[in-house]
Predict the structure.
Amino acid sequence: MNSSYGYKLIVNITQVSNEKDASIVPPSPDSFDFILRKYAYPIIIILGFLGNTISAFVFLNPQLRRYSCNIFLATRSLSDNGVLFSLLVAWLDFIYVRIFHVPVVCQLTVFLSYICSFLSVWCIVCVTIDNYIRMCYPSIVNLYCKSKYAFVILSVLITISLGIYNIPLWTTHVTVIAGNYYCWPKQEHIDILYILTYVDTALTFVFPLSAILICMSLLICKAVRSHQRSTTCRELYSSRTWPSSTSHYLKVTKLLFAVSVTFLILHTPTHVIKLKSVIEAFAGNPQQLSGVVKTLNYVFQVMYCLNFAVNFIVYYTFGNNFRQIVAKSFCSISNCKIFNKRSRDSIPSADTMSADILEQDSML
């Protein structure tokens, strides 16, 4: 029996349940699959934990946590750590540290993976909508884009996720197969797990992808129109008498574009293959993956894991204020002298930091 079963269960519990009666052969140590899983995953998990923890620390800064977008991003960082933890348990199972196949650990690991994946995806949707409001309806920003509303929305999302994803807690168990203990779906609940797979595909791929693409399109159109108006006005007025807001729109759009596109690139490919399998299963005509598709799927699974680990790099690269706060915080902790007077003057003060981030870098 393949000890990497735990990872397959986390990625697609229904696909695994269909393999129960099949002959599962452990991957060869020289195979691409084995090398990728053994060496790529621990690097992704360790670096992801570190980056997400730093990101959550920054977004929960007293000056930032008053705004809804930063609450969503902090929640996303913590949720991503939850996904990485479940992947760590699965990776330990891959190297024959079999804590995944212990009662309670089995159910909680799958449960945590579902919950945190759901919250991570919908936090991105919330941030996208938040920025759409800031750009297209600035007059209502102070009314709706507040942390108290973010907490209400997160409470609703958590309640929904608990209501839907509690299923693995009572549909999986530890059973003996071929003389070994395995965390495995209960045979009498296979139909329920099929339904869960369909629902999860819709909630973590179809609906969020549609919402993000629509908001991104509207935001880009808004930025283009704003640039056109600004160009026209500059032809009629001097730059001194006509202050431009184009840089603000372009900056926010750039940050949104970076976060959203990173999500789409890393999150989408493996879900496309999963959606194909779901449609085939629903049609009653499941097909085995070809060798090329299997290899691509291994790569796509690594990309999917990266989706929960590389956000710090995106924030640090495209978020000016995020980068400054990180540098200032860690230099303060280590008492380093990297910042000269010019650098200190460029970092927002406690009184102006929130306003600056709200107006220009509301996302990051």
Summary: The two ends are 45 Å apart (CA to CA). The first strand starts at residue 172 and ends at 177.
